[in-house]
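User: Please go through the entry that follows and flag anything odd:
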Amino acid sequence: MERHIKWQAEGKYTPIVKPGVMRFIDFGRLQLTGDEEYSGTTGEREYVLDFFSGSASITVTGRDGDTKQFNTVGGREDVFSGPPVMVYLPPGCSYTVKANSRNLDVGFFSAVSKPAAAAAVLAGAHVIRNDVGRDNWKRTVYSALDERFPAGKLLAGETLNPPGNWSSFPPHKHDRAKPSQEAVLEEIYFFRIRPAQGFGFMWTYTAPGDADGFSTVFKVHDGDTVLIPKGYHPVVAAPGYDLHYAWALAGEERRYGAWSDDPQHAWVKKQ
């Protein structure tokens, strides 16, 4: 079933969607101050780190013992201040994140995966900006970890809705295996709102005839997380408030854009 999670701090690293809650993907949030450090291992999972704000140095040691050092990664004031910078971490490595700024805020998405690529920073020309839709369903979509990078399972990026605008529209879903069209992909949205007292709405609903169907509208606030195991999932920002969400997908295939539009609403693309 769909889930809506409100964020609550539990120390430096907060597991928000723990492994096992969804079939493929999980999510947590790391917040450091000053010169604080956080270390971990990836185990059997690959990770993508989305730098929401602040900068850090990252040391990564792979299963072969080789060490990579990434200095001054990130640097945004907040998610509304430019395109994302992400870091890919493969399975079987250890890492240390050391804050270079007063407030560091990083999202950690992961999925079980076989080793595919080496650790890398995804920034600059690697991050593709697309202005999608038109009128009041125009939004900006940044693709950072996409099919150009040989990860095993994960896809990740960010979406920015101007005030009053819709995204994930026409409503689409990716929960059925249809060769050359739709793939089974779970997704997680992590929301930020500017100004922070604002809100948006997200409607998650399944196609007619789904044996485990649902239809739920969530009021989303700054720092909320919504899980999308299946179904359509359009989003709208309240007037006067910018709405941003970091997103990541993982599933049975790794194909961005492998979705089906809701046939009731797909006509808007043809106007």
